[in-house]
Write a structure and sequence with these properties.
Order of helices and strands: HHEEHE
Radius of gyration: 17 Å
Distance between the termini: 57 Å
Number of strands: 3
Helix content: 40-55%
Strand order of the largest sheet: 1-2-3
Largest sheet: 3 strands, antiparallel
């Protein structure tokens, strides 16, 4: 019975990580296109990812964020901005899990937004 319960808890933890990266990527893409210049947009998008991951109970240190633009100027109108968030989901309820870096899986999600014509 204990292995079945642990399996269910682990699957729930992985699903929570999946929800976290989807929400973080979507919010970061929206935040990025709302900013005026690419440098402040990148900083604001990365901060929004950290907040979203903390809201879902995941450690931001286990995540990586990449932001790509389809044009040279990320803030020019019509540019498609794609944010990808990767998260290493650790095994739940493991003693010394952080020091041993026991990971169940890496989940990732991408979201794209188009920079609007009127800023």
């Amino acid at each position: 019975m204990v292995p079945v319960v642990y399996f269910v808890v682990t699957v729930g933890h992985i699903q929570g990580g999946s929800f976290a990266v989807v929400g973080a990527a979507d919010q970061a893409a929206k935040v990025f296109v709302a900013q005026g210049d690419p440098d402040s947009a990148r900083i604001a998008a990365e901060r929004s990812v950290l907040v979203a991951l903390k809201d879902y109970g995941h450690s931001p240190e286990l995540a990586t964020v990449s932001i790509d633009c389809d044009r040279a100027g990320c803030s020019s109108a019509g540019t498609t901005v794609t944010v990808t968030v990767n998260l290493d989901v650790s095994l739940p309820l493991m003693p010394f899990g952080d020091s041993l870096q026991l990971e169940a899986i890496r989940v990732s999600a991408s979201a794209s937004q188009v920079v609007g014509r009127y800023q």
